[in-house]
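TASK: fixed-backbone design
INPUT:
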């Protein structure tokens, strides 16, 4: 049996976690910048270790920052300014002067990926004390962008920075952009509509199911002091489009979509066992990473089945395998919840019902707690650390998703002492790369069949259809768009659009589909 006294001194332990929020409509609103929010969370993480915060800060050798949305795309606006070195701006406020500063790639997998990576670095003896953090002040940026007394968040701190870039390869292309697949709701809607068809459910049944999945999340958010939308809502309320719950991209009304208007920060402190002892961090603060995995799905149009995310499932199962437990052994779960499919994809695989008594979130989820940019899962990890300490011997799972069900990082946590365990993510990634993929064509002409779809709705009621189809002649997959009213009505009707016949044409790099009458290749009235 592994005990603290028998652990390798290099064994990584999570010893501190902190969160911060700055609600625009709250009584104590401070107009904090992303740097200030991250620093506030990091101070809490240092204090949470139970040791002298100044001494711990001085011992930090690595800081790693999760990208804010405003630095996740080339040319993204920062209406209130930004730091030129986000990780070192935060470190400076803590009195830390780390040898290494990392700015991670974009994606919601970033928090768990960084925790796993830096825990492994510590286990290999290449570091001893790492502080990982992220933050967003999107709500403040929108609230104050045009204010006469708006704050200036510009900082120039310089210093070394390991900037890993945006990490957008495979997520955005000229082809998807030309054919209207430019936003996350539309991309994820393709998966949920494909899943609905696979389950042979009609629109009303599936909408209610999404509401039933997320209704328990609202109850958790309502009890969370950091939540951006702490309101309990019923399944019917979540699933029913109204003036305040307008359709975004079918099948999603607004309440089922990640809420990005937040001011949130979270941080996690990781040390070696030797450093924890040297700094005087009590053993009752120690939480161990028992299992972990990082996998990437194939690009969206290269996936064999658009109703599921098998690489995410594989990462989840492998993290549990590394931990040596099954899903039934988990006491807590936090499944990334930007859209319903991100939760149901994992819940289906682990046979977790929507009303699982353990719950599927610790925070309240991205639509209700808040979609804190790429940093949401840092909050999930912080909540998991707190729960594991309150329930010694329990296991907690965090699933972190990035891209379009593209990148998945999974972690299993417990206070039970354990040595560092390597995972087989690289080997499994090679398996993913070898999975069969359909032929994809960028120029599509002729009769075809709808594989999946969505209809985007703007604030003024205008509709745009997005269709993934298969050419009847070759079976090749293509992406197309439509603004044709007859076709849009088909896509939005109570009849099942998936499997319906369409005709696709191509011009100037854009594929356009129009609906036909199955078996006739023509429209009513000869159109």
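OUTPUT:
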């Amino acid at each position: 049996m592994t005990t603290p006294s028998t652990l390798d001194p290099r064994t990584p332990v999570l010893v501190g976690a902190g969160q911060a929020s700055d609600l625009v409509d709250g009584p104590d609103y401070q107009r904090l910048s992303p740097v200030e929010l991250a620093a506030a969370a990091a101070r809490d993480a240092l204090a949470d270790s139970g040791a002298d915060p100044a001494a711990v800060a001085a011992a930090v050798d690595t800081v790693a920052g999760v990208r804010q949305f405003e630095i996740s795309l080339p040319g993204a606006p920062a209406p209130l300014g930004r730091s030129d070195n986000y990780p070192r701006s935060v470190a400076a406020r803590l009195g830390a002067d780390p040898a290494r500063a990392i700015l991670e790639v974009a994606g919601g997998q970033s928090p768990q990926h960084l925790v796993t990576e830096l825990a492994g670095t510590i286990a290999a003896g290449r570091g001893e004390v790492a502080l990982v953090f992220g933050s967003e002040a999107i709500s403040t940026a929108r609230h104050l962008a045009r204010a006469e007394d708006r704050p200036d968040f510009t900082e120039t701190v310089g210093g070394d920075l390991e900037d890993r870039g945006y990490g957008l390869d495979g997520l955005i292309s000229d082809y998807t952009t030309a054919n209207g697949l430019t936003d996350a709701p539309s991309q994820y809607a393709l998966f949920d509509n494909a899943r609905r068809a696979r389950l042979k459910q009609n629109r009303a049944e599936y909408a209610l199911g999404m509401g039933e999945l997320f209704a328990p999340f609202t109850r958790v958010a309502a009890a969370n002091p950091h939540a951006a939308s702490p309101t309990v809502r019923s399944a019917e309320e979540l699933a029913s489009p109204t003036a305040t719950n307008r359709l975004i991209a079918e099948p999603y009304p607004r309440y089922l979509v990640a809420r990005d208007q937040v001011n949130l920060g979270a941080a996690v402190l990781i040390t070696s066992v030797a450093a924890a002892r040297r700094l005087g961090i009590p053993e009752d603060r120690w939480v161990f990473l028992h299992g972990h995995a990082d996998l990437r799905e194939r690009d969206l149009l290269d996936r064999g089945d658009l109703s599921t995310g098998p690489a995410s499932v594989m990462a989840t199962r492998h993290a549990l395998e590394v931990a040596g437990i099954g899903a039934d052994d988990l006491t807590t779960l936090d499944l990334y919840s930007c859209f319903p499919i991100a939760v149901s994809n994992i819940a289906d695989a682990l046979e977790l019902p929507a009303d699982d008594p353990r719950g599927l979130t610790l925070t309240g989820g991205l639509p209700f707690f808040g979609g804190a940019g790429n940093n949401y899962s840092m909050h999930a990890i912080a909540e998991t650390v707190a729960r594991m300490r309150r329930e010694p011997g329990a296991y907690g799972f965090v699933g972190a998703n990035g891209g379009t069900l593209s990148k998945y990082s999974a972690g299993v946590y417990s206070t039970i002492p354990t040595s560092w365990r390597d995972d087989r993510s690289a080997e499994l990634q090679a398996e993913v790369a070898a999975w069969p993929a359909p032929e994809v064509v960028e120029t599509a002409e002729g009769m075809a069949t709808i594989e999946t779809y969505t209809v985007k709705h703007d604030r003024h009621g205008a509709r745009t259809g997005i269709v993934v189809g298969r050419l009847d002649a070759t079976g090749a997959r293509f992406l197309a768009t439509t603004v044709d009213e007859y076709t849009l009505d088909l896509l939005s009707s109570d009849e099942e659009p998936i499997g319906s016949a369409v005709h696709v044409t191509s011009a100037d790099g854009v594929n356009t589909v129009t609906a036909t009458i199955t078996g006739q290749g023509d429209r009513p009235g000869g159109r």
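COMMENT: The two ends are 75 Å apart (CA to CA).
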